[in-house]
Hints:
Low-confidence stretches: none
CATH superfamily: HIT-like
CATH class: Alpha Beta
Shape: globular
Strand content: 15-25%
Number of helices: 3
Structural class: alpha+beta
Number of strands: 5
Number of domains: 1
CATH topology: HIT family, subunit A
Strand order of the largest sheet: 1-2-3-5-4
Bound molecules: zinc ion
Helix content: 25-40%
Amino acid sequence: MVCLICSIIERRIPAKVVYEDTYSVAFLDARPAAPGHTMLVPRAHTLRVEDLTPEQAQALFSSLHRILAPIREAVGADATTIGVNNGPGSGQEVQHVHIHIIPRHRGDGGSIVQSIGPGGRANPEEIGEKIKQAIKPTGG
Ligand SMILES: [Zn+2]
């Protein structure tokens, strides 16, 4: 199956590329939620953030760190919302990791990520322990 994001990275589909380096590419979203809405993607075709290697994840976050202020300043925004639909159950439409960077302004009428809801009723102590146990300790 042809991946839309891989096609953009390989320049087989046109997009306004605003940044690229060894691991990452950033381009304007074709259906922007706000002017300057940018997608940052790893060059590696990977479904979820946790499927990236630690090196790829670090490089992607470094690219994010580098491009945020320039994006915000280019459109005169005072903030950004950064979001990842991480896996098909989240509404991820393209099966390739992509970080949405949406410039924001106070009073722009947009929502916050916590508006996803409907919220959980699970016991936080029990869920917290399950997550804690599932996170494997790093070496050392
Ligand atoms: Zn891909």
